[in-house]
Every structure is written in structure tokens, then in C-alpha cells.
């Protein structure tokens, strides 16, 4: 249809009484503000969409591009769902008088498609600005004020943690925290308090503390106990505020330790999340599972595996193995029930009623390598 555009007076081809330019302005393919403000944490680089979130990008440039992209996407309305939108963040600009607090990212938006009733596809372009507002996110402000919801305590049953265990567990906790932070931004370590008997961590979120405790338990075995303490009342909601303490106790024993259980002597064969597996030292075949709750009450440590005395193998035949005690040179003879035993291998032995039992074998090669 030809005629005069009712908006600008142009004479020519009209769509619904409008020239092409006026039509595109009256019926845009998308709508977006000229300027979008987005809150960005100056400490951790997280930014606020509906909730605060950590950037996926690694370097500053890609983080800024990401922020500009999502800020635009979240504020853009398409006139129809079939319209394709391309969001292209440009080079970030420092505004005059500004440090990082005045940062602006121009964004080019290209929309392609047609509205219902239109017979030809068209393109619409728009340039906008995303302006960053540097603030401190709720997580960082809590972190800065040493906020914590939970204390995670790591201990061993009936003994202090050894220095090696402390080092290993601390490494494990920090790795777990790093993983957890991807899902729970509040799962940070607010404070680390090494203790003589174990390790204490103040954790930003209850869920984080519980999660780390259960990871420790599934790797090292043991028990978890949780207690809560009322610390106040939230002024805005009137709800009670609690802080929890999660204690995870790793097993007293290690594989190889010698324990007494119901008047028999056992070697700790393996340690699982909920159970301890004991092996009768006199009868190699018998292995029994004992739940931690029972083990705590009914077992008793006789000797640490590494404290058991040693004897060196001096002769091996298909039937017998002869070894000499490294301390008193006493000679012992055992049935050869071992796989692949050689002269020079070292046996860990435990003596009960003057009879020595083999509770472990250390290969000669591994000893030479030390
Ligand atoms: Zn017009
Ligand atoms: Zn932050």
C-alpha cells in the first residue's frame, strides 16, 4: 500500500500506515534500557543477577564481558519469542575521574526476525551501556566481619590427631571447601583454629560444615555429632538464631593396629565409613565387621601397627618361613601361608602368650627404598 506515513509524512510504501523507519520504531523487535546498572563486588568479582553469583570467567576481561552479557540479557525484552538476539559486549571503558568504581561496558545488540503478520525478516541494532556499581557483596561483608554459622571440629576417637593427620585433614578440608563454594557461596572458612587435640574451623554456612564433615566421614570413617546453640534473635524476622557445632571423630585405629575385642586379639584389616573390619591374628581366615558404635565401647588398642616389633626373614621353603627377631635375635618359624615372600623381607610381629604372630609383611624392596 502506498500513501503518506501518518507519523512523519513520508510518501511511499507503507506498512499499517507507517513508513519503514517509523514502523520499526513503533514496533521494535526488542526493548532494552539505554543504560543498565549492575552491582559488582569489588572484593570477589561476583555480580548480582537475581541472586549474587560468582563469575565463570577467569580473567578480568572475560569477567567484564560476562557481566555485561548477563546484565543485558536479563534486562532485554523480545517482542516475540522467535526473534534471535545477539549480545556483543565491547571494550570496557574507564570513566573520567574514576578508579575501578567507574567502569562502563558498551554493548551492541542485534535482533533478527519478524513480528507476527510481517512478511519480511528485519534486523534491529541498538547500542547500550552497562555501568558497573562497585559494592561489597553480602558474602564478602559477612566474611570481613568474621561471620560464621558453624564450627567444624575434627578429632580422633580416644586420642589426639597426629601431626601427619592434621596436615592431611587440613588439606582435605580446604579442597572440599573449594568444591563446596561453587554451590554454596557462604561455605567459606571464616577462621581456622588449630588445637592440640585436633582442628577447628569456623564456617560461613551450616550446610557447608555438615557437608565437609560427611566427606571426612566417608573418606576416613568415624562418627559425626551435631549440637546447636541459641546465639540471639534476628531483629528483622524475629526468628531465633542458632550456631551449630559439628564434631567429626575419625577412628582411633589405623589399618595394621592390634586391638582386643571380646577377649580375642585382632589386627585392623580395613576401615570403612561405618565399620571396622578385624582380622583374627591367630586364624587368618576370620574377618569380622564391627560397627563404630560397638568398636568405641568394646575394643581396646593393644599396640599400634608401626610399634609392633620386627623380624627379618632368613629362610623360605614352600612349607615354612623362618625369621629372626631384630631386637633379641630369637628365631621364629611360621607356616608359609604368605604370597611371594623372600629372604630379607621384614615381618611385623605381635606376641601373645609368648607365641609370636605375623601381623604384617614389609617387602625388602620397599625398605631399601627408604
Ligand atoms: Zn514515517
Ligand atoms: Zn564479594
From TrEMBL:
One of its GO terms (cellular component) is cytoplasm. Residues 5-250 form the Nmd3 N-terminal domain. InterPro entries: Nmd3 (IPR039768), Nmd3_N (IPR007064). It comes from the Archaea. GO terms for molecular function: ribosomal large subunit binding. PANTHER family: 60S RIBOSOMAL EXPORT PROTEIN NMD3 (PTHR12746:SF2), NONSENSE-MEDIATED MRNA DECAY PROTEIN 3 (PTHR12746). This is Nmd3 N-terminal domain-containing protein.
